[in-house]
Amino acid sequence: MMNVIYLVPALGLIGLIVMAIKSAWVSKQDAGDKNMQELAGYIADGAMAFLKAEWKVLSIFVAFAAALLAYSGTIHEVNGKPIHSSWIISIAFIIGAVFSATAGYIGMRVATKANVRTTQAARTSLKQALKVSFTGGTVMGLGVAGLAILGLGGLFIVFLNIFADLGVDTVKTSIEVLTGFSLGAESIALFARVGGGIYTKAADVGADLVGKVEAGIPEDDVRNPATIADNVGDNVGDVAGMGADLFGSYVATILATMVLGQEIDASGDQFGGMSPILLPMLICGLGIVFSIIGTWFVTIKDDKSSVQNALNLGNWASMAITVVASYFIVMWMLPESLSMRGYNFTSLNVFYAILVGTIVGAIMSIVTEYYTAMGKAPVLSIIQQSSTGHATNIIGGLSVGMKSTVIPILTLAAGIMASYYFAGLYGVAIAAAGMMATTAMQLAIDAFGPIADNAGGIAEMSQLPPEVRERTDNLDAVGNTTAATGKGFAIASAALTSLALFAAFVGIAGIDAINIYKANVLAGLFVGGMIPFIFSALCIQAVGKAAMDMVQEVRRQFREIPGIMEYKAKPEYEKCVAISTKASIREMMLPGAIALITPLIVGFAFGPEVLGGLLAGVTVSGVLMGIFQSNAGGAWDNAKKSFEKGVMINGEMFYKKSEPHKASVTGDTVGDPFKDTSGPSMNILIKLMSIVSLVIAPYIAVEGGMTSEQGMKMNGAQMECCGDMMSTNSGMDMGKCDMSLCKTMSKEECAAYCDSVGCSAEEKEMCQSMYGADGKFDEAKCKEMCKTKMGSSCMEGCDKGCKTAEECAKSCGDACVKSHATKM
Amino acid sequence: MMNVIYLVPALGLIGLIVMAIKSAWVSKQDAGDKNMQELAGYIADGAMAFLKAEWKVLSIFVAFAAALLAYSGTIHEVNGKPIHSSWIISIAFIIGAVFSATAGYIGMRVATKANVRTTQAARTSLKQALKVSFTGGTVMGLGVAGLAILGLGGLFIVFLNIFADLGVDTVKTSIEVLTGFSLGAESIALFARVGGGIYTKAADVGADLVGKVEAGIPEDDVRNPATIADNVGDNVGDVAGMGADLFGSYVATILATMVLGQEIDASGDQFGGMSPILLPMLICGLGIVFSIIGTWFVTIKDDKSSVQNALNLGNWASMAITVVASYFIVMWMLPESLSMRGYNFTSLNVFYAILVGTIVGAIMSIVTEYYTAMGKAPVLSIIQQSSTGHATNIIGGLSVGMKSTVIPILTLAAGIMASYYFAGLYGVAIAAAGMMATTAMQLAIDAFGPIADNAGGIAEMSQLPPEVRERTDNLDAVGNTTAATGKGFAIASAALTSLALFAAFVGIAGIDAINIYKANVLAGLFVGGMIPFIFSALCIQAVGKAAMDMVQEVRRQFREIPGIMEYKAKPEYEKCVAISTKASIREMMLPGAIALITPLIVGFAFGPEVLGGLLAGVTVSGVLMGIFQSNAGGAWDNAKKSFEKGVMINGEMFYKKSEPHKASVTGDTVGDPFKDTSGPSMNILIKLMSIVSLVIAPYIAVEGGMTSEQGMKMNGAQMECCGDMMSTNSGMDMGKCDMSLCKTMSKEECAAYCDSVGCSAEEKEMCQSMYGADGKFDEAKCKEMCKTKMGSSCMEGCDKGCKTAEECAKSCGDACVKSHATKM
Question: Percentage helix, strand, coil, to 5, in chain A?
């Protein structure tokens, strides 16, 4: 049955093969006339130029970080505690980084092909245009999910083989090394998201401010020098950035579930006790297949059909299939009863947790759609407030954004409590994994938006007939809503994933609580809460600064290059592309550094509990700021878009160019960095900081603390005796000797182990005395010793040192004896 | 030496007497010509009308809440645990509410007198105008601080007498009943701040949008129908609202310190062990006197002198005197060594904690000033970004606000850690109290701003010569900065106070940790973090809505009343006043209800630990949102003001009415509700929710939990034996019998107590056996029993039931014996 482990990378491969087929299909489509191809060429070149510039900088970072990780992998002991790591973590890190970059690259390449082909298809019908753009999105989705599953599943098999001779530590070490993969992926995701987000919004805001507002030419006008940069931005930000982002999220979620899965005692399964580890990978791998099935539903009959409905159908279909399939997978793989950190649950409960995750994800999507969709109360209220000027429009948008946090947070809180109730911390993690299983489909829907946006841009720039632009606008409008719901989904999964990572961190760092009532932990919570604020400020400010540079450059070109406005001279597109590229690379450094370095400083200077407080602060504040900014931005955007068809305010109709419309453009411009730069970066920020903390956890584990495995055992309410003995709080302290490890070793191995960690002679002897004549660890003996040596040997108040029930009866009476019976 | 307790209300009285003298002086000043007096009359009437309408609503709330509290006071036992409360808490609550309202009223009355008199004084010189306006502010400051100290000190004496026959519970019950005073004060503060904040900004935004932007008439033009409402707003929001706010903060801070102070064992002092309780009251009481001294420094030579410097001098002087005096008071009152929850510290360390608090307050003020002052980098960056339009101005302001959280949060975190390091949780609380000691001075500086603002308005409306307006503008500009620094101060003290309240809550609720690693506590943290967002959204939205009503009304008057623009007809001021009044009363309900009811729901439904998580979330997110919003608003305001004298952007000068100026007006308008409605409400929100939690803590204390006193003893690392015995986690459980209470009783009292709480016969007997032949509690006997009965009787790993060192030596060896010596 262990063959199921090979199924995982195979599923990833299937995704990649389907992707290749779909990608080839897109390439084969008609790319339109020479003019269109030229414009598309500019966009593709600009996007490639940005990716190259970004990769250059990131490769330095990756090399540096990999060296650091390789060094850390050579440390095998900190404060006398063994650390299960290896220099191979640096290889995993590099692979994660490369895969993440590749995922972005695949998406961007197909997007820059699909855009012009969508324009061309839109000349014939909406149905065809949807097909091309959505297939482009599907390539991206399958590429990301396929690479993630292939990478995780493949590396896990490789690591299991590499560390096969570590015996009991094989799985543990494999998973710890695998965190490097996730760290690599998430690091690249952060830079790609922030860099791409700054790029796209600097170009967008800059192009709009001079083009639309000052020069009075339409969006995507070929005369605007910044228009190519704007379209490049859609590809590097909304496609490549988002691809890397969701790649990172997806990997982190699965990994967090695996880390917690290894703590579960599932020895009754048919997978060598590894079923809880394999489960998330398998569900997400099959999710790829179900996403492919879902894409079949995304088709329309004619130009009058609803694109949104088609996408919804595909999305709900793949989610429904995944949920149903999860039931059978869970019931097949997991043993009926499981236990983690003292929390008991059944396999059915694990399924319920997955169900909870899916429901949370669905509610988050629906709520996000409500707060950002045209025609709904929140957007209407912003439109209403646009009538009294720019300021009231802004006030309206800010308050909509803030209000939109309420239901998602309550849903999330309920989801955390419910999934924990069903299956403990593993339940929280698997809920997130279940939610993320259809990432391929989610991403296909997400990525189709910017492709359609680009297609519209090319149509405008090529001065194609209005019905073409109308069709691409139809797709684009739907794309705006799907982008918003996708963000809701991403932030929900990030919150659940962080909690899972958080739980894993606590175990490895050897603490059994993060008590915010302690002054320094509370201080950590404050500092953590502040990080999303400074991170957002830096992103927003970067967009503002870069946009101003862009404005100056566009103004200069209008001034210095005569004939642009009369179509007689070509603007210098590449100069604007260069400005965005340079600015985004430069400005992504500081926020990225804050995310990476803060946990290091806090962890090493103040220890794991304060770091835990920091993480909690980052998570809570990051989720709130993410929802607030994404939704405010989305609502402003659609409030502005509503003016295109005209809106009624106090009985009067207003259209584009009216005063209220101008106010709504202000809101949209403010919302741009909110919804595409800082807002969506929040979920990466949260996860990246959690992963960094997880990676450094063994090195900052508390003095005399526990290893991960012990920590987990210690946390539960029902502690096993032989684990209990090691507790630093209990009556006896075994010092460095870890009986719960010996339990899994032979007598000789245990002796060697005791020597290696520096146990005293007494400690070693006690450990050795636990072995029976056959050289096997005698659990009964261990428990007996616990009974006699621990304070818990008698009932409360009766401790007169009795070692057996008989003795107890003599010294303490019958009540005590009864207690012996019930307690042991 | 106990007479010192009478000194406290006496100091409050001194403050009130000086206030009365200063108030009489203000009244005696020349109130100007008939026209000015008429305008001032409108303002005073409008303000009074609002207060009356507000009080009407609040009196219903107070009556209802008081009834609930009185009922709760009759519950003497929950889950078998005794609760130390009394129906008298409802009286304390009512007095707190009335005092808080009175504080606001005093401020508003003097402000509506001082405004016109400042205008009149400004006709002669800046020096005189400063004197009148600052004296007006001083009346407010002294009124608030005097009432607070008189109320706290006086009620404490009364309660000590009322509960004198409770023996050991006298102090405890007195302080618990005193929390009602703080609850009343803080409740009124919330409504006053939110209601007043909505009022003032609805009027301000509404008046600006139609008057300045649409009709093109100056601010405070007599033709604008909303101008009176705008000026009323300054009085009900910035004066009455702020007065109630700081009254609440001040009381909460002192009370939190008293609650923690009662846990300190200070039996070596000359005040019957009550020195840690009296200390915060005494320091704050003397702070009133030092504030009076500080006001002497606030004077200028002529029109060219710097008003800011004069205010700074007064402020720093009173702070310096307070710090120096604190040293002597602390050294005189406190015994040299103290201990709380196992944390040992010296009296000198308590002084250091006060010093930390003062430094934190000073840094917060300086940072706030930096981020909001004209001519500094942040405001200049917003001006710069105004050149590219409304949107970039908004982006600039938002990012300045977010960035401005960094240093305050790091300062706060360091302050929490440092003050805890010096004197444990008491240190954190006393740091806040030290910071708040010069509240009278702070408030004088704060309240002088709106008086000057009003004076300017009256000058404008009465069409007085430009030099008069220039003088009042000079004062107003300084007032803007002091308002911002005052908010920094308030939020810092709120954060520290909340932590202190938090600590008190933990003790009373019988939990010894708030572990965010638990799923439901984390869920509480999320929900708590969300509260400031929805609260802010509701406040901002209320301002937006009410401002729109105002705009419609002003437009209607311009349209329907001919001759307004030609000064031929008088606008209907009272209609605008009525709109603001109605809107603010209506809109303050929901946010107020959220603040009051959320802790009740969470506490009773999910228990104290989840409520603790909620409080932590509210505190962190509230502090961040408070700083963010207040500073963004302040920076926008001064960016706009900078245009009055002209600003240089990219080498070009811009003045009022230029495009960048218009953009800056948008920012200012957005910032108005940020800085005067939602931002400053955050600190009340935080504290009110903490106080509500503290009040309900005994009723939601965990099953088998501890009483406050025990809880505190249990928390420390070095637990006292006779307290330790009661721990539910320790080897023996005394059930309902609380040995640490018996310790303070006679044998008979203890027997009666055991019966009253329902101890079993064995439990009672054990308690009785602790008394010596003389009928006195024998602590040595108790400790001996602890040694023999508790798991801690031997060193870790040696527990073989030895009762004496000799026995131990026999069974366990010398190492164990040594442990006996060091441990007991």
Answer: 80, 5, 20
Coil, strand or helix at A771: strand
Residues 6+ apart with CB under 8 A from B716: B339, B340, B341, B342, B343
Q: What DSSP assignment string belongs to A612-674?
A: HHHHHHHHHHHHHHHHHHHHHHHHHHHHHHHTTS-EEETTEEE-TTSHHHHHHHHHHHHHHHI
pLDDT digits (tens, 9 = 90+) for A624-668: 999 999 999 999 998 998 898 888 888 888 988 888 999 999 999
Cβ <8 Å between A391 and B495:
no
Gap from A514 CA to chain B (nearest CA, Å): 5
Separation of CA A715 from chain center:
27
Residue A536 has pLDDT above 60, yes or no: yes
Q: Cα dihedral sign for B329, B335, B339, B345?
A: positive
Q: Are B224 and B211 in contact (CB under 8 A)?
A: yes
Q: Do B491 and B626 form a contact (C-beta atoms < 8 A)?
A: yes
Highest mean pLDDT range out of A781-790, A814-823, B527-536?
Answer: B527-536
Percent of chain A with pLDDT over 70: 85
Q: Give B628-662 pLDDT, tens digit per residue.
A: 999 999 999 989 988 988 888 888 889 888 889 99
Q: Does B440 touch chain A (CB under 8 A)?
A: no
Task: Determine contact: B531 vs chain A, CB below 8 A.
Answer: no
Main-chain phi, psi angles of A302, to 5 degrees: -150, -170
B591, B380 in Cβ contact below 8 A? no
Rounded Cα distance between B234 and B308, Å, is 21
Stretch (H or E) spanning A42: helix A34-73
Q: How far apart are CA B450 and CA B460, in angstroms?
A: 15
* B295 CB-near residues (< 8 Å, 6+ apart): B134, B138, B314, B441, B444
Flag whether the pTM goes above 0.90: no
Q: In Å, how far is B199's CA from the nearest CA of chain A?
A: 16
CA–CA distance, A755 with A742 (Å, rounded to integer): 12
Q: For tokens 């841009």, what's the residue?
A: A457
DSSP single-letter state for residue B339: E
**For residue B708, pLDDT beyond 70:** no
Q: What is the pLDDT of residue B418?
A: 94
The answer to whether A732 faces chain B, any CB pair under 8 Å, is yes
Mean pLDDT over each residue of chain B, to the nearest integer:
83
Tokens 């009407």 map to which residue? B56
Query: Is residue B67 less than 8 Å (CB to CB) from chain A?
Result: no
Alpha-carbon gap, residue B560 to B577, rounded angstroms: 18
pLDDT (tens digit per residue) in B334-393? 998 888 877 889 999 999 999 999 999 889 888 988 998 888 999 999 999 898 889 989
* SS percent in chain B: helix, strand, coil, step 5: 80, 5, 20
Nearest Cα residue in chain B from A734: B797
- Residue appearing with tokens 């802004």: A394
Q: Taking a C-beta distance cutoff of 8 angstroms, is the pair B275, B262 a contact? A: no
- Neighboring chain A residues of B667 at a CB cutoff of 8 Å: 391
| Cα distance between residue A386 and residue B322, in whole Å | 51
Give the C-alpha separation, A753 to A589, whole Å: 44
Q: What angle do CA A588, A590, A594 make, to 5 degrees?
A: 120
* Chain segment A20-67, per-residue pLDDT in tens: 999 999 999 998 888 888 888 888 888 888 888 888 888 999 999 999
- The DSSP secondary structure of A89-146, one letter per residue, reads HHHHHHHHHHHHHHHHHHHHHHHHHHHHHHHHHHTT-HHHHHHHHHHHHHHHHHHHHH
* Residue B1 pLDDT grade (very low, low, confident, very high; cuts 50, 70, 90): low
Interface test with B, best of A198, A341, A531, A533 (most B CBs within 10 A): A533
Contacts of B156 (CB under 8 A, 6+ apart): B5, B8, B174, B175, B178, B258, B281
